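User: Before I run my own analysis I want an independent prediction to cross-check against. Here's the chain; please return only the structure tokens and, at the end, one sentence I can use as a sanity check.
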Amino acid sequence: MRISLDPWGGDYGSQMTAPGEVDSEVTTAQVIGRQEEEGPWKPRTPNPSALPEVTTIIDGVMRVDAPAVVSDEDRRYLAIFGSYASGAVQVNHRVAIVEESINRLFVVGGGYSGADVHVQAGNGTKTPLVYRNISSPESTPDDLRRALMTEMRQTEIDIARKLSGPEHLVLADGNLTFLADSSSIVGVIKTIQRLYLTGKDAVILEKLKPGDRTPLFRFSGSSKNRSFEVYTCYLRLAEPRPIEHHYAGLVRLEVKVGLGVQNAVELLDQAAVKVVALASRAPKDPRAPQNLIPVGGLERQLRHKLGDPQLVRRGIERELLDRRNREA
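Assistant: Structure tokens:
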């Protein structure tokens, strides 16, 4: 197996693409029943019966350290050296980072399985960075990045499960498609990639005041890898400026349907109160208000733990050059 690097930096993807490859992943989502919560379809003010003593927020960061190509005899496979870090910050009478997990992967497409790659990154320590090899059946650069993200999301869910417990509210970044059971983890979706309300039902989004949420509704979705079914609601964190669209300042919260409607309402009300309280403010955070204040500090810490990207890239280049010299 010979590894060659793509000259482009990891943040810019790959200069190469696999010809003829089409992203065949089919993702669908559909609303099942417009509303699951009793009462009229109008904005609700969250009113939980109690608030948790501890709020735990899970998040992660990832990057491609270097795109690559693996050569094995006359066959070629796209690959990436990727790193990700996942962690948790807890908020009670103080704010503290309580969990960190640093991982490095050598993701090879086309179903090819190789060996782990050890890299001396030149960061002043003698401990090498170990890029654990995983194989992806797909072949495009986007597929390889998606495989890296899947590993990161699974690690985040594992951390969320570990830190769940009585009097603990766990907020996980993103949807819960990676969560198979019905634990009391709440997914916080900061971006809007599609609207799950349409027509007259969607008008409620323009009527939400800061702190208000929509009634709970239910939807299911599926991709080629997994399916999911959740209770969800939109929550407004801040009033849009006059020049901003009506969806500015919204997040979506979701929990697994296995909790039941009553438990879901209580849990989402608790989450809504906490998310509003922890919302960031512009212009300090360019992703305000959706990026929660403790997440900014957690992400800075996790990026620091990943190491300087230029030093890591140089370490990978030096390792591959040493291999070529040994082969000569």
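Sanity check: Confidence is low (pLDDT under 50) at residues 12-26.
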